[in-house]
Design brief:
The strands form 4 sheets. Strands 9, 10, 11, 12, 13, 14, 15 and 16 form an 8-stranded antiparallel β-sheet that branches. The protein has a 5-stranded mixed β-sheet with strand order 4-1-5-7-6, with helices on both faces. It is built from 8 helices and 17 strands. The protein folds into 2 domains: about 130 residues, Chitobiase, domain 2 (2-Layer Sandwich), CATH 3.30.379; about 160 residues, Mog1/PsbP, alpha/beta/alpha sandwich (Protein Transport Mog1p, Chain A, 3-Layer(aba) Sandwich), CATH 3.40.1000.10. It is an alpha+beta fold. α1 packs across α5. The two termini are about 40 Å apart.
């Protein structure tokens, strides 16, 4: 029950600002956009919201709903450690994630949130991605497009409504695209005889999109990179914002620069959805990128 981004927060004394300030994760797409949509409700209404797929319950051992949720061992641990964090699955519904933050006394609730904020946010973010991925694979995939992509030695798991553009196939560049909203994923490969660095990746992406995407370029101040391992390959993952001055357009992108056997593989996904929420669609693009296979 609920959207992928919905997180129900239940407590006897809710401080919404503490939850948002400590647990919200933001995407810059390019505007600042919160990943989660928090739904705040008192513990007296728990039965109306306990079928949602993602819940956070926080409070002290003196709260009845915390007392009911925790067994005797968990209560003793909380008394000893002052505050504890529990991750529970399928408490009231199948596939449900329930995070319980318990403290020995009410005064410790805010310090407990501060202590565990990074772990809770990471857990919520991973759960959000898993929900988007589950929704993606619950829809019918386009087997025909993968049959065509295999001719180029690759596949992506995409749904209906995606199209292939192989205009530049002789230059080892092809892309697939979809509309409503506009999304595009490209694949490129070349022999690699130099070190893969962040500077190289930034310059290479700009050169590719300048030629094949009508002059797109990335905003370097809003782009970050990290080293990754991906399906037997090593490389870099970049995430940031692209822009096109002539088209007066821009949005988020994610790129993987991967090397294997002296060959560079680049897969890149981007989104253009002006004036609308972007994180759900952008995360779905990431799910598709992560389905990438080489043949």
């Amino acid at each position: 029950m609920g959207r992928s981004r919905d997180v129900v927060v239940i407590s006897s004394k809710i401080d919404s600002s503490v939850i948002v300030n400590n647990l919200q994760v933001y995407n810059y797409v390019p505007q600042k956009e919160g990943l989660f949509s928090f739904i705040f409700t008192p513990d007296t209404l728990i039965e109306q919201f306990n079928k949602y797929h993602t819940l956070i319950l926080y409070g002290a051992l003196q709260d009845d709903f915390i007392d009911i949720l925790l067994d005797s061992k968990a209560k003793e641990t909380t008394k000893t450690d002052t505050f504890t964090l529990f991750k529970l699955d399928d408490v009231w519904a199948k596939g449900q994630l329930v995070i319980v933050l318990a403290t020995s006394l009410p005064d410790y609730v805010q310090p407990a949130i501060s202590k565990y904020k990074n772990l809770i946010s990471k857990t919520l973010e991973e759960n959000y991605y898993a929900r988007i991925k589950e929704n993606h694979y619950n829809k019918a995939l386009d087997k025909k497009i993968n049959k065509t992509l295999k001719k180029f030695g690759i596949t992506f798991d995409v749904g209906q409504g995606w199209f292939i553009d192989s205009t530049y196939k002789d230059e080892n560049f092809i892309f697939i695209h979809s509309h409503f909203p506009d999304r595009s994923i490209f694949f490129y490969k070349k022999a690699m005889d130099e070190e893969l660095t962040s500077s190289f990746a930034l310059d290479k992406r700009d050169s590719l999109t300048k030629r094949y995407y009508n002059g797109d370029y990335l905003l370097r101040d809003l782009t970050s990179s990290e080293k990754i391992e991906f399906k037997g390959m090593t490389g870099l993952r970049m995430i940031g914002v692209w822009q096109n001055d002539s088209l007066v357009a821009g949005g988020p992108f994610i790129s993987y620069f991967l090397t294997k056997h002296d060959t560079l593989y680049v897969i890149d996904g981007m989104l253009f959805n002006p004036g609308e929420r972007k994180s759900d669609y952008f995360t779905n693009v990431e799910v598709i990128l992560n389905s990438f296979e080489i043949f």
